[in-house]
C-alpha cells in the first residue's frame, strides 16, 4: 500500500516536472540561462568581456562575440570544462588562454555544454541584440503565439491547417534576421497581412520586447 502511494506521488511529481517541457526549448535559450548564472560576471551580459568582475581582474575576460567564431565546438568544450587543457607557465599549450578562466569541470552535462555553446554562437553571430527578457518572452509566446507559430516556433501550430495559413518560421535565421528589432516590434503590435493579429492593447511594450528576444533565441 505504501509502495502504491509513493508510486502515485512520484508519478505526480514527474507529470508536473517542468524539466519534461524544457526538452523542446531552444538550445540558445537554455544556454542563456546558464550563461547569466555562470559567465556574465566576467564576460558581461553582451559577451564583450565587460562584466562587473572584469575590472578587478589582471587578465581581461575574452570578448566572446569575436573570439568564439573561430573556435570549434570541441575546443570550446575544452576551454569551458578545462578537461584536456594543459597549462604550461600560465598559458595553455595552444596559447588560447591562461588559468584566469575558471575550469567548469563536471558542472555541466553534455546537453548543457551544447546549449552554452549555442548561446556563445548566438553572441558571435547575431546582428540584433536581445532587447527584453527572453524568459518572460517564452511564457507570453506559449500563451498567445504557439497556436499558430507552433510549440517549437517553426510555424506549424494547431491553427495553421485549420485556417490554411503560413505563419513565419521563427526558427529560420534567414527569415528573422532580415528584420531588425523595431520591425519585429512593429509587426507584433500592428499585425501583418490578414492573419497575423495586432497585439496592441493586449500586450505591453515590454511584453513585446521580451517576445522579440525569445524569437531571436529560437533560431539558434
Ligand atoms: C572569473 C571570471 C570568468 C568567468 C566566471 C568565466 N570566464 Fe571565461 N574567461 C575569463 C578570462 C579572464 C578569459 C581570458 C583568459 C586568457 O586570455 O588567458 C576567459 C576566456 C574564455 C574563453 C576563450 C575565448 C577565446 O576563444 O579565446 C571562453 C570560450 C570562455 N572564457 C567562456 C566562458 C564561459 C562559457 C563561462 C561560463 C560558463 C566563462 N567563460 C566564465 C574569465 C572568466
Ligand atoms: C492566428 C494565427 C497567429 C497568431 C496567434 C500569431 N501569429 Fe504571428 N504570424 C501569423 C501569420 C499568418 C504570419 C505571416 C503574415 C504575413 O507575412 O502575411 C505571421 C507573422 C509573424 C511575424 C513576422 C512579421 C513580419 O514582419 O514579417 C512575427 C514577428 C510574428 N508573426 C510574431 C507573432 C507573435 C510574437 C505572436 C504572439 C504574440 C504571434 N505572431 C501570433 C499568424 C499568427
TrEMBL record:
Residues 26-124, 132-219 form the Cytochrome c domain. GO terms for molecular function: electron transfer activity; heme binding; metal ion binding. PROSITE patterns: CYTC (PS51007). It comes from Candidatus Venteria ishoeyi. InterPro entries: Cyt_c-like_dom, Cyt_c-like_dom_sf, Cytochrome_c-type_DH. The lineage of its organism: Bacteria, Pseudomonadati, Pseudomonadota, Gammaproteobacteria, Thiotrichales. Residues 1-22 form the signal peptide. Coiled coil: none annotated. Keywords: Heme, Iron, Metal-binding, Signal. This is Cbb3-type cytochrome c oxidase subunit CcoP2. Pfam families: Cytochrome_CBB3. It comes from the Bacteria.
Amino acid at each position: 500500500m505504501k509502495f502504491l502511494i509513493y508510486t502515485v506521488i512520484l508519478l505526480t511529481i514527474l507529470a508536473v516536472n517542468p524539466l519534461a517541457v524544457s526538452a523542446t526549448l531552444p538550445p540558445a535559450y537554455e544556454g542563456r540561462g546558464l550563461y547569466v548564472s555562470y559567465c556574465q560576471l566576467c564576460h558581461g551580459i553582451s559577451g564583450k568581456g565587460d562584466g562587473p568582475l572584469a575590472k578587478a581582474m589582471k587578465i581581461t575576460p575574452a570578448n566572446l562575440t569575436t573570439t568564439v567564431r573561430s573556435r570549434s565546438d570541441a575546443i570550446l568544450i575544452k576551454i569551458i570544462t578545462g578537461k584536456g587543457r594543459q597549462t604550461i607557465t600560465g598559458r595553455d599549450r595552444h596559447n588560447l588562454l591562461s588559468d584566469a578562466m575558471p575550469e567548469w569541470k563536471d558542472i555541466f552535462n553534455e546537453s548543457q555544454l551544447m546549449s552554452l555553446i549555442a548561446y556563445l554562437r548566438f553572441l558571435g553571430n547575431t546582428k540584433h541584440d536581445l532587447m527584453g527578457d527572453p524568459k518572460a518572452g517564452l511564457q507570453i509566446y506559449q500563451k498567445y503565439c504557439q497556436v499558430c507559430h507552433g510549440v517549437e516556433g517553426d510555424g506549424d501550430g494547431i491553427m495553421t491547417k485549420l485556417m490554411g495559413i503560413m505563419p513565419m518560421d521563427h526558427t529560420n535565421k534567414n527569415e528573422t534576421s532580415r528584420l531588425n528589432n523595431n520591425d519585429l516590434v512593429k509587426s507584433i503590435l500592428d499585425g501583418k497581412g490578414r492573419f497575423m493579429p495586432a497585439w496592441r492593447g493586449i500586450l505591453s511594450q515590454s511584453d513585446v520586447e521580451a517576445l522579440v528576444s525569445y524569437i531571436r533565441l529560437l533560431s539558434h
